Amino acid sequence: MRLDDTDAKILSLMQQDASLSLDQIAERVGASKTPVWNRIRKLKDAGVIKGQVAILDAEALGLEACFFVLIRTSEHDPDWARRFLATVRASPEVLEAHRLAGDIDYILKVQVKNARAYDRFYQSLISQVKIHNVTALLSMEELKATTALPIPDRAD
């Protein structure tokens, strides 16, 4: 979908605060409510806006440990991949999972209460799928975290 400046402004506002009312968004982009509503609907229909959620504070919920889990596997058949994917998707501790190019096959971002909780996650993971090597890295400090994507320049 091709975005114009108004679409970009709407998306920027919604990424900053999705709880803004339609009136507030329209006022800030300098348009009336109905055209802004139509644009938001089109952005949703096109899949640009995938959903609207509340972003929770992990520490406030007692989930103080963030681990980045590097996984190497010697298994690459479709059945293993399906089981691994199902296991990862069923694990609420896994916030992100990526298949990588290079020496590491997968990386997971896992948010848990503490090291014991991570060990429970790890034991569950390896009991469900065969993994060649797992390295867990504890994040000591979060330096930047955002869900806001950079909106491409409309000139591109």
UniProtKB/TrEMBL annotation:
Transmembrane keyword on record: no
Swiss-Prot/TrEMBL keywords: DNA-binding, Transcription, Transcription regulation
Pfam families xrefs: AsnC_trans_reg, HTH_24
Transcription regulation is among the record's keywords: yes
InterPro entries: ArsR-like_HTH (IPR011991), AsnC-type_HTH_dom (IPR000485), Dimeric_a/b-barrel (IPR011008), Tscrpt_reg_AsnC-like (IPR019888), Tscrpt_reg_AsnC/Lrp_C (IPR019887), WH-like_DNA-bd_sf (IPR036388), WH_DNA-bd_sf (IPR036390)
Annotated HTH asnC-type domain residues: 3-64
PANTHER family referenced in this protein's UniProt entry, alphabetically: DNA-BINDING TRANSCRIPTIONAL ACTIVATOR DECR (PTHR30154:SF17), LEUCINE-RESPONSIVE REGULATORY PROTEIN (PTHR30154)
Protein name: Lrp/AsnC family transcriptional regulator
Species assigned in the record: Paracoccus albicereus
